Amino acid sequence: MRPDLLGQVGGVSRRLHDALTLGAVLDALHDGGYELLAHWTQGEFHHDVVLRCHDAALPGPVLVVATNCNGGVKELCFFDDVPDRDALWHERCPDGEFAPHTLPPLRARHRTVHWFDPCELLTDDARSELRPECRVRQRGGGWMPSG
Questions:
Q1: Cβ proximity of 49 and 26 under 8 Å
Q2: Looking at the 3D structure of the chain, how many domains does it have?
């Protein structure tokens, strides 16, 4: 796994390094262009937005933007190919319920001040804003509305 390379360069990479919201990430990618490939949620408080970026100066063409429920960027991960969702979560939480799958090479990772251990979201006693009678456990962990 390569270290945080984003802070060492200029241009779009520097703007991504400084971005703390999903909107700021998308603004930084605007000139080079991007495609939205997927949006995955895990529990109430985690989103993975998967983008294909067209700027060749980035560490990899596929960017996974991990955000909190308010769009605050927790982590940016660059890959050569779209990662399998379970593989991504297994890499984050190897002791969790996600089966190991092959993860494409991780070209760069940047964690922001919003980052915290995502495994905390997967436990049976993970925090929730949903009343117990209104929620069910999501596959892998975390809560989602019932029904």
A1: no
A2: 1
- Provide the residue range defining the domain that includes 106: 6-116
Q: Is residue 12 part of a domain?
A: yes
18 within some domain: yes
pLDDT digits (tens, 9 = 90+) for 74-123: 999 999 999 999 999 999 999 988 988 899 999 999 999 999 999 999 99
Which residue type is seen at 7? Answer: G
pTM over 0.85: yes
Q: Is 144 exposed, middle or buried (0-12, 13-18, 19+ CB in 10 A)?
A: middle
> Are 64 and 48 in contact, with CB atoms under 8 Å apart?
yes
What distances in angstroms separate CA 124 from CA 17, 30, 44, 46, 102, one per listed residue? 33, 39, 13, 16, 26
Evaluate whether residue 145 is within a structural domain. Answer: no
Number of residues written out for the chain: 147
Ranges of H-type helices in 45-114: 85-92
